[in-house]
Specification:
This protein is mostly helical. The protein has a single domain, classed as Four Helix Bundle (Hemerythrin (Met), subunit A), CATH 1.20.120. Helix content is 80%, strand content 0%. It contains seven helices and no strands. The protein has helices at residues 3-23, 29-53, 59-82, 88-110, 119-143, 145-152, 157-187. The model has no long low-confidence stretch (mean pLDDT 86).
Length: 196
């Protein structure tokens, strides 16, 4: 197995580790979750660069890379939903898009076609990564509320505004996710036509 595929597999392994760290309450667990998520996200950048620069692009990598991305981002969105920091509609829209694109990929695979991630797909992944890391940082900042508020008498909104901004960022990534999903469907629409 080549290095890019190993990096992608490492991202797959880190996804449940990230979710576990996010959900278990211990000091600085949001910060720790952000570090685990960031390391996993960096593997997404490096596996693609290494594969392209060294001619190591494989069908297995084309299949595994988007799956690893989906595992990581889904872990984050389900984790945020579990701790009450994300709207269920955002998760539903994202998962619907992912199932839709995966279904089209499966239909294409019947014809021996492996559908690689598009520019729009990569853009939505970056947007999701950025919004997730921002939300984790905002949640970590929010845990400082009791100790800092008592010392400096800061307003409660100082700690809630970053989380609200994080939710806006996530909804922006939801919109980009839907746009990229519709682009995949449009570009691969010929797979929906019945053969005569």
């Amino acid at each position: 197995m080549n290095i890019p595929n190993r990096l992608t597999l490492f991202r797959v392994v880190l996804s449940p580790v990230f979710l576990l760290v996010l959900l278990i309450d211990f000091p600085f667990h949001y910060l720790t979750a952000a570090l685990v998520f960031s390391i996993a996200a960096l593997t997404d950048m490096f596996d693609g660069k290494i594969a392209r620069s060294h001619g190591l692009i494989t069908n297995f990598g084309k299949f595994l890379d988007p799956l690893a991305d989906k595992m990581l981002t889904t872990a984050a969105f389900i984790g945020f939903l579990a701790i009450g920091q994300l709207d269920v509609w955002a998760v539903m829209l994202i998962l619907t898009r992912e199932f839709m694109v995966t279904s089209v990929r499966l239909v294409a695979a019947k014809d021996g076609v492996v559908v690689a991630a598009s520019i729009a797909g990569k853009t939505k992944t970056v947007a999701q990564f950025v919004s997730i890391i921002f939300m984790l940082a905002a949640l970590e900042f929010g845990t400082w509320q009791s100790s800092v508020l008592s010392k400096f008498g800061l307003s409660h909104s100082v700690y809630t505004i970053p989380v609200d901004i994080g939710r806006v960022f996530i909804w922006i990534s939801v919109v980009l996710t839907l746009v990229s999903g519709f682009q995949y469907i449009w570009e691969l629409r010929h797979y929906f036509k019945d053969s005569k």
